[in-house]
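Entry 14. Ran structure prediction on the chain below.
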Amino acid sequence: MVISVREDVFRLAEVFTISRGSRTEAKVLTVHVERDGVTGWGECVPYARYGETLQSVAAQVGGLPPEIDRAALQDALPAGAARNAVDCALWDLAAKQAGKRVWELAGLAAPQAVITAFTLSLGEPDAMEAAARKHAHRPLLKIKLGTPDDMARLEAVRRGAPDVPIIVDANEGWTAEVYSDLAPHLLRLGVQLVEQPLAAGADEMLGEIARPLPVCADESCHDRGSLAGLTGKYDVVNIKLDKTGGLTEALALRDAARDQGYGVMVGCMVGSSLAMAPAVIVAQGVQVVDLDGPLLLAEDRDEPLIYDAAGVHAPAVALWG
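Output, C-alpha cells:
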C-alpha cells in the first residue's frame, strides 16, 4: 500500500472570524492510500489550538508503515487530524475494494439527509445582524462569540433572524462570571445550546454554577477518553472527526456518549465536502448537526455534497465511501 499526502487550499466565500482570528481560505491535507490499483482518500484540517500544523500532521502521516490497517492505526497515531485523514481514507479504500458503501461495512443503515446549522462568523453587531438577515431562511444558525461585547452581537443577530433557532459557540472565550451573566439573556433570546463557554482544562466551574441551557463540550472532548472528565459539567459532546482521529473513533465515541447520557452534536472544522462526508454518517440521529464547512467555501471538491431544504445528504460514490 502507498500512502501519500498533499496540501489543498479552498477559498472561502467570505472572511471567517472566530475569537482566535480570521481566515480567507481553508488549508487542508488530503491523504490518498492506494493498494492494487484502488485508491481511497480522506481529508483533515490541522488545528493550531491542538498544536497541529500542516507540516507536523503531514510528517505524522508520512511516518506510518505502508501496510497499516484501521485497527493498528488507532495505536499508531493519537487522536487528531493525521489519524482522521488516514482512517477515513482506509474506510474509503475498503468500501471501494468491497464494492459496498462505508455504512454497509460498518453495519449501519443508509444515512438520510440531516439538517445542519449555518455558522455566522464573529463581527461587529451591525455586520452580524446583516448576516443573520441574509441567512434567516436557514433552519438553524450558529453564532461565533467569545468576547466581552457579546450581548450586543446576540441582540443584533436576533433582530436579523427573529424566528430562527440559534446555538452559540464561545470558543473558550468566556469566564464563569461572564457566562453566568449571559445565560439568562441566552435563554431570553431563544438560544438552544452553548458550546465551550470556558477554556478546556479550566472548566471546573461548570459543575458548580447553574446550567439553565445545555452546555456542549467541544475543546474539552476529543475521544472516549475525554468522557470521564466531563461528568457534571457538560450535557452534550461535540464530535468532530479531526478531534476523534477518524470515523472509527467517532462512531465509538457517539455510542459511548449516548450510553453515558450525553446528548450528541456532530461538528466540523472549515473544510471541503470530503471532510464532511464521513461525518454525515456519524450525524445520523444526533441532537445537533453542524456540518456547514462546504457552505462557507467559494470552491469545493469536484463531486461535492448536496445541501438542500432537507439538509446535507450522504456522499455520492464519486466523492467518498
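The chain has a mean pLDDT of 95. Will compare against last week's run tomorrow.
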